Amino acid sequence: MFCKHCGKEIESEYKYCKYCGEELIDAPLENKSTEKENTQNRENNIKKLFQLESEYKKREKSTIVAFLLWFFFGGLAVHRFYSRRYASGTILLIINLAFTITAIVKGSYYWLLTIIPALWIFIDLFLIRGMVREENYKIRRFVERIIK
């Protein structure tokens, strides 16, 4: 074995180098195996990170898609279903359909009922970004749990 401080050859049973007097705690071979383990750990961590990012990108929700769904299908609450707000999406859909059907059938001033879901849909315009951000946060935590 070689001393890691002075580099001279010494016998492996010594605890101190007879040339420089330094303590021999770790043998050089043990250091090499530790370096290999550290390198493997780093490589595994990098692989996990890439796997995490690729899996997250597959499942990630887009804010632009949510806005487009709101614009074209806001009355059907599709933007809420897209951001996994199933309960509120179902409620909005039922209210909107019920009030719209009532306004068509009854006529007269019943069309004023459609203002309620219309106002909700308008307010969603300002909430979409937060809904998508929160859903993406949940997706990231889920993917992290899967990968670990």
Textual characterization of the structure:
This protein is mainly α and 148 residues long. It has a domain of 77 residues. Helices cover 69% and strands 0% of the residues. The chain contains 5 helices and no strands. α1 runs antiparallel to α5. The longest helix is centred in the C-terminal third of the chain and has 33 residues. It is rod-shaped. About 3% of the residues have low confidence.
Number of helices: 5
What is the terminal separation in angstroms? 40 Å
Strand content: under 5%
Shape summary: rod-shaped
Largest sheet data: none
Taking pLDDT < 50 over at least 5 consecutive residues as the criterion, the unreliable ranges are 27-31
Tell me the radius of gyration.
32 Å
Broad structural category: mainly alpha
Number of strands: 0
Which features characterize this protein?
5 helices; 148 residues; single chain; rod-shaped; mainly alpha
How is the secondary structure organized here?
Layout: H1 28-59, H2 63-73, H3 78-82, H4 86-106, H5 115-147
Helix pairs in contact: 1-5, 2-5, 4-5
